[in-house]
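quick one, 154 residues, struct below
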Amino acid sequence: MVSQVDPTAIDRIIDKYQSEEGILIQVLLDVQHEYNWLPEEALKQISDRLGIPFSQVYRVASFYKAMSLTPRGKHLVRVCLGTACHVRGAPRILDNVEQTLNIKAGQTTQDMKFSVERVNCLGCCALGPVMVIDGEAHGNLVPAHVEEILNKYD
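---
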């Protein structure tokens, strides 16, 4: 099997922070940004380079929702189901996203184009219901607009 991790890229990320203390989370976030997830091979290299037990690196990586230990799609779709969004119809928005992409929340499309997450709050309650794609908020949604919005992302 061909490696999907470029060891020099991981080294470059670690070297950026090497003189600082407590760099593990920032290194993991940068690797996540580079690969869109945290491959085990990258976690092992981080463990070796930083002298932190693999179990501790894995524990930190699995604790934070911003980090993923499974491959994510090119576009991350987050649908808010917090109280304000929920009462304004967020469950129908999520249903429409799942139906349009033919996956459930927590899954990734087979073409690796989209991953869908349900979240409890995105901090945009006044815009509810809200869907955020790659950091771009789409508020005051109605189910009929979901497919049109998703189609804008290639």
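The two ends are 28 Å apart (CA to CA).
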